[in-house]
Every structure is written in structure tokens, then in C-alpha cells.
Amino acid sequence: MEHIRVSQLKTRVSLVVCVIDASTSKTPLGNTTTVYLEGTRSKAISKSNGSYIFNDLPPGDYRLTVSSEYYFPEQSLITVGTDNFIEIVQLKPLPSYPFSQGAGLIRAMLKDAAGAPIMDAKLQARIVTEECARARIMMDQADKGALEVTLGSFTGTIAAGDAYILRGRGAKPAEEHIRIVEVLEYQKRFRLERKLTKAYTRGSLLLPVQETRSTERGEAVIAFRGNRIQAFQTELIITYGKDRSELTKEVLVSEGMTTNLGVIRLT
């Protein structure tokens, strides 16, 4: 009798990369997204939901690169162990991105004192109009040092990678910059990137923050989505140069319109 040996090969999911459009919180536009992991021959298996899976990676440190036609490329250093690891990558739209007609935009051209374009300046636009709050704290109190928050009163979806200003209530409200790193329970519980440095009571607000950087030509664009009122006030912070200089401007944004700041000279 001939003996037949049956071998079963099992693969282990080592890394899941979830790629999100920072403007829409959906999968990136087009079909040109590539996910590359330096230091391995393993290729990503792409899924229709915008995730990319790497199997059977040896534990260690890797450099992850994500690129797509309408977005700035993103790089990050990650550490893969023996358990499944999930990395969220938000892609920031380039100035050439086909924004929806309803988006409120801020556009600017950044140049130095000599008129040369400033590349890779960091731009952060914070909505300060409280009617635009994306959600509110629903627990009696989010304590100082907390890494999880329970939210409610949503006016839109909150996704991993989103940044917000958490603002308390009262005459002199506490506030700080936070980032969501994991959705623990859809539209309810969320894990933060860092521990809270202050305590916040029920009803504290999450005000959206949009972030981007300038191109090699000094161009920059910031888009806002899903706000409840037609016009709202923002605080634009531009960080640039080796000494990390900052310029702050107040900018009024209207949905469906572009606020063009023209050339901004950074000295």
C-alpha cells in the first residue's frame, strides 16, 4: 500500500496596514496605493476595505512606506512581534486632490524671505467654533491619565488617526490636543495616542483638527468635512525651518468655498 502524507501549511497574519483618506475617513481614491515594507520580501495582500496584510514576518523593526496618486507619501518605523499588529495610516491629500464641491478649503503658497518655496512645512488648522464639535465626552469624567474615552452626540464619524482639540466646559476651560489611535467600540469607546494631561467632565467638546504639509513648490491645502454650520473660525498654525518657528493666523472658512491666503512669507 502506498502511503500518502498530507501536509498542512498555515500562515500567520503578522501585520495589517489600514490605509485611510484623511479627508473623507474612507479608502483612498483611485487604485494606485502601494504599501511597501523595507527589510522583507513579503508582499502585501490587498483587501477591498483598504487594508493590506503581511503574513509570517520575522519579529523585528521595519520601515513602512505608503504612497498613492493623490496623496503625500507616508513613512513610519514599526515593530512587529509575535502577535497581530495593526498600523493605521492616514494619507493627507495633495493640492491636486479632487476635493468634493461641499468641502471648505484653505489654500496657501509658502515662501521664504528670498522668494524660494518652503517644502515640508507643517500646517495644522484647528476649528475653534464650538458648534462644529464632532462629539462630546459622555462619561461623568475623563480622568487625568486616561487612555480611553467614551463619546456621544456625534455629528460625523470618528476614525483612527483623527486629531482633535479636547475642550472642557466652564469659564476657563482646559484643553489639549488628542489623537484617536483605535476604535474600541463603534461610535462609543476610543483609545487615545497619549494619556490625558487634564481631567474633563461630561459634555467636553472634540473640535476637529486638520493637518498637512507643503509640497516642493510650497503649495498647501487643508480641507474640512462634515461641519454643521456654513462658516466657522479656524486657527492655522504653520511650523517651519530647522528651529521649528511658528506662525499663527485666524482664518474664516466656508463650506463649499476656498479661502485663498495667497503667498505667505515665512522669515
| E-strand count | 21
C-alpha-based Rg, rounded? 21 Å
Low-confidence stretches: none
What is the residue-averaged pLDDT? Answer: 91
Strand content: over 45%
Largest sheet: 6 strands, antiparallel, barrel
> What shape does the CA trace take?
globular
Continuous helix count: 0
| End-to-end separation | 86 Å
Share of helix, binned? under 10%
Order of helices and strands: EEEEEEEEEEEEEEEEEEEEE
Structural class: mainly beta
- Which strands sit side by side, in order, in the main sheet? 10-12-15-14-13-17
Describe this structure in words.
It is a single chain. The protein has 267 residues and is mostly beta strands. It contains no helices and 21 strands. It has strands at residues 13-21, 34-38, 45-46, 51-55, 60-67, 74-80, 85-91, 104-111, 122-127, 135-137, 141-142, 148-152, 163-167, 175-185, 189-192, 200-201, 205-213, 219-224, 231-240, 245-254, 258-265. It has a six-stranded antiparallel β-barrel. A four-stranded mixed beta sheet has the order 3-4-1-7, with no helix packed on it. 30% of the residues are buried. The mean pLDDT is 91.
